[in-house]
Amino acid sequence: MDSSYTSTHVIPVVNSKPLLSQTTRLNWGRFQSAQYLLKLLRLKYPTFPGKISDNQAEDLVREHCYVSQDYETDLSHYLDWTGLEDRDHTVQFPYTEQIVVQKTEEELAAAAEKRKESGRRLQAQAAKMRLEKLKKKEEELEWCIQLQGQLEEITTKKEKARVLESNDFDDENQLNKRVKELEFAIKKARNKDLGEVEEEQVEVPTFPLLDTPDDQLDEEGIKQKRQQRLMKSNYDARQRAKIEKEKEKARLAEEQRLDDERRETDPQGWIDERRIARQAIIQKMKDRERLKAELGNRKSLANQMRMKSIANLASDAPTKKRRRGGGDDDTFGADDADWGVYRTIATGEGSDDEEEEDLSKNLKEIESQLLKHDPNFTEESTREAQTDWTKSILHAFLHGPYPFDSESQREINQIHLNVERIRVPEVVFQPTIAGLDQAGIVEIASNILTERLADSPNRDDVLKDIFLTGGNTMFEGFEDRLRAELRAVLPAEQTIQVRRAKDCVLDAWKGAAQWASRKEAKKDFVTRQEFLEKGAEYIKEHDLGNAAY
Predict the structure, then answer these.
(1) Are residues 150 and 83 in the same domain?
(2) 298 FRET partner, CA 20 to 30 A, in 227, 316, 404, 478?
(3) Secondary structure (DSSP) of 367-424
(4) d(CA 179, CA 292)
């Protein structure tokens, strides 16, 4: 077997004479192996900043690749984290590191002092601005108090309304409210400067005009009464929301108390319930991810159902214009489930975002409880750890077992050889993995022995001395793999011996040179006269010639 630079030949030799008519060639050698590795690396690292030359690819094949004894099994476990440090080989390419200027301690201290000085200037500017705002508020408060005193001296309502309107106030209540706001703001600002914090006191609003009949109010009073009614409605709504919030808080506290009692009385049952709830949430999240993926495919069942729902909505619309007081009417919305159709047909980024956030929140809450109370549930068991990119097979394939820093020029200019180490040499045994429509060397050898040499009395002698030559046979484990593969397809009692040339790279050349140096070989040479007479395509036939091609 000769697997050289451009091709691989399987040549049966009987009685020291090669049967060239029975020779089979496989169009794969070291050159194709290097090109195959180069294509795999370009596909693996499409944005690799450096350029991998053909010579570098050949060096990578020679130094890092080896023949696997059980390719399918090794490939399925090659990216397992156990032992990946030994299987993954990191190749560092040249790069230019960004130079970071290291500052001295004096420079660092000066920079820190500069930052402190800048902070003090900002604090002084902020204090100056607060003082200016405080002066403006005090001036505005003084002006509002003067306006209140001026209104007390006015006796007619019309004159009061005119004065208030000229100063941008609707009524005296608004003026009084503004005075209270300014007093509170000034007091709060002064306390802040002194370092004192005063809680804001919420004053209960009053609505005196609501109990006054309309016939006792003038036009302006009726207008104020309407405004107070609206304000009271808003205030009552806020109070109801506050009460509901307190009830919900009390309900959650009660549920937490019952849950704590359940955990203390039956800890294992409580853990089992939490695990079941966690699994149900994870299943929902997986179903949502699967549905999103299916909606991206126009021919998927989910997308077809969505289009059917849209078509049904369009067909349910009335075709004629409704008339006032009559016409068609449907019952859409009578059942709350009717509105779910919009969730079914929604595919935008904002569809069901709240539900997804709730699922994530509930999952994190359950996992935090399990981490606290379940000794068998660890950080590695959480969904975040299981879906961590740095622990995925793809990360192991691209960057090995090590973390990857996208800002590091050193790591950007690295390639990791893992599955390629056994995939490239495997082609001579399984050419189909590289898209080559030919049989492997074991299948070729088996065909020669079982069919072409089936009737030869020297068939067993061929197997007793299988000679390997060529640089592409120098992979570690090549002999053992070939012996094991032949053993699997031949009878168990068959004697199989495999040996390798002392110098696989130059062995074929040395053999040809030794043959050409013999005197008997001169009769097989094409002389000048024969070349001029018969042309360049003329070749003399001899025992080591290539007349069969």
Answers:
(1) no
(2) 316
(3) HHHHHHH-TT--GGGSHHHHT-GGGSHHHHHHHTTS---TT-HHHHTEEEESTHHHHT
(4) 57
* For residue 348, pLDDT beyond 50: no
State yes or no: pLDDT of 350 exceeds 50. no
CATH number of the domain where residue 475 is located: 3.30.420.40
What pLDDT digit, counting tens, does each position of 156-181 carry? 888 888 888 888 888 888 888 888 88
**Overall number of domains in the chain:** 3
Q: Let me know whether 372 and 433 are in one domain.
A: no
> Would you state the pLDDT for residue 217?
79
The answer on 43 and 126 residing in a single domain is no
For residue 144, the enclosing domain spans 110-203
Is 141 part of any domain? yes
What six digits make up the tokens of 226? 């309407």
Q: Are 475 and 67 in contact (CB under 8 A)?
A: yes
Tokens of 510: 């040395």
Q: Which comes out higher in pLDDT, residue 355 or 524?
A: 524
Question: Any idea what DSSP says for residue 449?
Answer: I
Tabulate helix, strand, coil % of the chain (nearest 5).
60, 5, 35
Interior CA angle at 356 toward 350 and 358, to 5°? 125
The model's pTM: 0.59
**Vertex 522, ends 521 and 526: CA angle to 5°?**
115
Render pLDDT for 31-52 as a digit per residue (tens, 0 to 9): 999 999 999 999 999 999 988 9
Give phi and psi for 3, each to the nearest 5: -110, 100
Is the CB of residue 489 less than 8 Å from the CB of residue 442? yes
- Do 79 and 132 lie in one domain? The reply is no
Smallest Cα–Cα separation from 34: which of 343, 475, 389, 481? 475
b/e burial code for range 302-326 (CB count within 10 A of at least 16 → b): bbeebeeeeeeeeeeeeeeeeeeee
Alpha-carbon distance of 365 to 263, in angstroms, equals 15
Do 374 and 477 belong to one domain?
Answer: no
With H, G, I as helix, E, B as strand and everything else as coil, classify residue 221. Answer: helix
